[in-house]
């Protein structure tokens, strides 16, 4: 078989690229045959040998010498063309491929965020996924920064786009190329990724003193009890929103936070704690007393029903036993008022109303968790590992993200004794150790 049988203008060119596999790095050859079929094949685990094999293969192609694999592709009835997915096709493929290894909430978050990023690229005139370059990613960062998003959110967006393209290029192998997300993208230098906000006792007291029942649009909602429970446990908001009576042993005063496959959530059936990390904690008397004061109401969780395109077409009610349900009033077909108790999905607007009434600014729900951690560390003397076990964090994460600096506490510690006394104690300790 000779090259002239195909195309006299055929100019073979072979190249080498590396792929990281579980067993290590492997080098691949890439070239096109005269009928336009692209061939990719492993050749060697050493770079220098791969380059030598590449030169040899290019010479063979020039001479029209095709091996068995090449002849198989040359004999295909239909010449293949390189797969070039659009941004929309690439997004659909990524979401379907990663759905099985993510929880419903994580998958919904990825879907919502990536749709925004893809829409931005499309607004820049990009149609195909491989048209996005490093400059487009940098423009996306600037666009998100102009919206006033936190630095941590910008870092998260960069990581998500990088994972998206790693999947397309390395896992799905849709094309060879370089990930358009730079290794060190230019991010705004306006503060740390770690929030360093520690609520003081006065702010917490003012928050707890607010009665949500007296605020507009909050009557009949579990906001007050939920916020008190957040302060008394340091739990994550999602853990409290999905807390059910069966999770608690009120006699022993414990709360088990674990995977619940039948718990109805806003994204589907099944709820898991962050990182799927279960824990069992001993409740403080304040939290236990709060639980005992609450009524046990028949509750439901509305789970979305989606069509083939993923759009929500309705909701299905599932029986549940939520501890902090909200009141939902509707009129039936005859105009009669019916009241049910359903899962509370968010505290965004009610939290803003309570902060405004309490005169507290720049305080996030998760700052209550940070405050609780500071109480565990400074008042109870728990180590970072012990406090992390209670909160569901590793010791490192607890130290980095949930232990902000309190200048007041530091000042009190520094005033316990003079510097001279401290130095004398240190020297005495050193001398006694000799």
UniProtKB/TrEMBL annotation:
Domain Tyr recombinase residues, every copy: 193-416
Keyword DNA-binding annotated: yes
GO biological process, one term: DNA integration
InterPro entries given in the database record: CB (IPR044068), DNA_brk_join_enz (IPR011010), Integrase-like_cat_sf (IPR013762), Integrase_catalytic (IPR002104), Integrase_recombinase_N (IPR010998), Tyrosine_recombinase_XerCD (IPR050090)
Organism domain of life: Bacteria
Keywords for the protein's UniProt record, in alphabetical order: DNA integration, DNA recombination, DNA-binding
Keyword DNA-binding tagged: yes
Recorded family membership: Belongs to the 'phage' integrase family.
Annotated protein name in UniProt: Core-binding (CB) domain-containing protein
Organism of origin: Candidatus Lambdaproteobacteria bacterium RIFOXYD2_FULL_50_16
């Amino acid at each position: 078989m000779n090259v002239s049988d195909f195309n006299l203008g055929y100019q073979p060119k072979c190249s080498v690229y590396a792929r990281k596999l579980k067993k290590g790095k492997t080098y691949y050859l890439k070239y096109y045959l005269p009928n336009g079929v692209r061939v990719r094949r492993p050749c060697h685990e050493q770079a220098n040998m791969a380059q030598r094999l590449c030169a040899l293969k290019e010479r063979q192609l020039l001479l029209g010498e095709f091996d068995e694999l090449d002849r198989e592709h040359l004999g295909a009835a239909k010449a293949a063309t390189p797969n070039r997915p659009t941004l929309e096709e690439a997004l659909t493929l990524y979401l379907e491929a990663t759905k099985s290894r993510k929880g419903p909430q994580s998958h919904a978050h990825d879907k919502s965020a990536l749709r925004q990023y893809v829409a931005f690229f499309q607004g820049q005139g990009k149609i195909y996924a491989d048209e996005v370059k490093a400059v487009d990613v940098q423009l996306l960062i600037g666009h998100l920064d102009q919206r006033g998003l936190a630095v941590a959110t910008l870092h998260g967006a960069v990581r998500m786009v990088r994972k998206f393209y790693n999947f397309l290029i390395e896992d799905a192998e849709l094309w060879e190329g370089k990930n358009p997300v730079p290794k060190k993208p230019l991010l705004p230098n306006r503060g740390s990724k770690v929030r360093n906000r520690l609520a003081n006792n006065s702010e917490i007291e003012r928050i707890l003193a607010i009665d949500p029942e007296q605020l507009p649009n909050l009557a009949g909602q579990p906001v007050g009890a939920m916020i008190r429970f957040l302060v008394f446990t340091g739990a994550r908001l999602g853990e409290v929103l999905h807390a059910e009576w069966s999770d608690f042993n009120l006699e022993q005063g414990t709360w088990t936070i674990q995977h619940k496959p039948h718990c109805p959530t806003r994204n589907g059936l099944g709820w898991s704690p962050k990182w799927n990390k279960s824990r069992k904690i001993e409740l403080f008397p304040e939290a236990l007393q709060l639980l005992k004061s609450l009524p046990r109401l028949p509750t439901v969780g509305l789970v979305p029903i989606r069509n083939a395109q993923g759009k929500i077409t309705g909701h299905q009610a599932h029986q549940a036993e939520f501890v902090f349900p909200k009141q939902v009033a509707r009129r039936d077909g005859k105009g009669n008022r019916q009241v049910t108790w359903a899962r509370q999905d968010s505290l965004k607007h009610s939290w803003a109303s309570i902060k405004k009434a309490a005169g507290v600014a720049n305080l996030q729900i998760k700052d209550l968790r940070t405050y609780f951690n500071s109480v565990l560390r400074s008042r109870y003397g728990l180590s970072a590992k012990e406090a992390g076990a209670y909160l569901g964090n590793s010791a490192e994460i607890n130290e980095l993200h949930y232990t902000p600096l309190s200048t007041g506490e530091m000042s009190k510690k520094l005033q316990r004794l003079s510097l001279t006394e401290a130095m004398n104690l240190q020297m005495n300790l050193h001398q006694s150790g000799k």
